[in-house]
Design brief:
single chain, 152 residues, mainly alpha, two-stranded antiparallel ribbon, globular
Amino acid sequence: MERPSPESHDLARQLLAHEMQGPSLEGRTPTETAEAGQRICQKLYQQMAQLIGPIGFNALGARALHLARIEFPFLNGVEIRMQEEGCLKGLPESVQGQPPAEISSALVAVFANFIWLLVTFIGKDLALRQLRSIWPEISPCGADADAKEEKG
């Protein structure tokens, strides 16, 4: 099975670090890390639902979560669903008792999968433009080798 490129993971790490307001993902509480994940999900939903619709967003998000659960089974209680607290329903409960570094790695996996799937469906250029419109300060580092391999 194809997996997200290192570039997708790097971009997801940048998003999480940005939302946690610092380059270090270490030393954060499970609650702080989960809240940063919720902010990323909400911002992605607000931007991407305009382009791919709420159902498209939910489908990509559900698949991204499914793929991340293989490595991080504590995400089994999490689902994509827009609600007042965010769009990762069950995340605050699922991360309790988990080491913060593991939570960060799990969220990076979810968002790397989401970015990879988004690139696969709408193309690298449009996906990166959408991400930059949310987070103009991110550096996509040449961005996504996944799309190059697809066209290859």
